[in-house]
Amino acid sequence: MEFLPKLFLNLGLSTQCSKEEWILPFSISLQESLSSYNIELCGGDTYRSSSLNLTLTLIGVTTKPWKRSGGKDGDFLYLTGSVGLSLLGYKILKEGLDIPEPLRSLALERHLTPKARLKVSKELSKNSPVSCCMDLTDGLLLDLPKLASSSNLGLKIDLEKIPILSNILTYLSLGEVLSSGEELELIFLSPVELPKTLCETSLTKIGNTTSDWKGVKFFPRKLRKNL
C-alpha cells in the first residue's frame, strides 16, 4: 500500500534531557529515522516534564487502503522475508544464548531495529492485486487467525514452506518460531502467482484460502505436534 506518512511529535523534556548533549543526538537520530521512511515531521509541541515523555502520532494518507478483510476463496497466502529472528534476538539478550555469527547479528538487528517492508508494499500496490494484508506483529500463530476471521475464510498453511533461516530451529522450537512477534513482515492474500523476490525481499507462498471451513489449519499433520 502506497501512502504519504506524516508525523506529529509531542516531546516532554526533563531537566536532564533539556541539555544539548541529549537533544542533539536525539534530533540527529530522529531525522535519520524519518528520512529512511520518507516521513514528514509536520508539527507537535515541547514542554517541561519531570521525566522524559514522547508521544508520536503517525498519519498515513492513501487512495487505495489495504484492509485485513477482502480475502477470496482460492487466494494464495504470501509471507515476506522469514520468521523467528525477533524472538531469537530477545532470547540472546534475555537469556544470554550463545549464537554464532552472522545469525547472532541478524537476530539482534531484527529484535532491536525491525524494518517495515514499505518498499515491498509500494511495489505490490502498483503492480499486483492484493486482496488483504497485515503486518506480522504478534507472530503467525496469533496473526493468521485474525486474517482468516476478517475475511470469514479458512487458511490452509503448509508448515514446510514457511521461510525459516537455517539453524534457527537449533535454538527455537517450531512453535516458538511461529510465535515470534514484532517481525514486521507482511502476510497478505493475492489471487495471482507472484515472483519469489520483490525489492530484494523474498516472497513465499505458504498457503491458500478455502471456503470449506473457517479458521487456520496447519499441514502436514506430522509437524502439528511441534506447535
UniProtKB/TrEMBL annotation:
InterPro entries documented for this protein: PurM-like_C_dom, PurM-like_C_sf, PurM-like_N_sf, ThiL-like
Q: Name one GO molecular function term.
A: thiamine-phosphate kinase activity
What highest taxon heads this organism's lineage?
Bacteria
- The record places domain PurM-like C-terminal at 72-186
Please provide an example of a Pfam family that matches this protein in its UniProt record.
AIRS_C
Annotated GO biological process? thiamine biosynthetic process
Write the protein's name: PurM-like C-terminal domain-containing protein
Species in which this protein is naturally found: Leptospira interrogans serovar Copenhageni str. LT2050
UniProt lineage: Bacteria, Pseudomonadati, Spirochaetota, Spirochaetia, Leptospirales
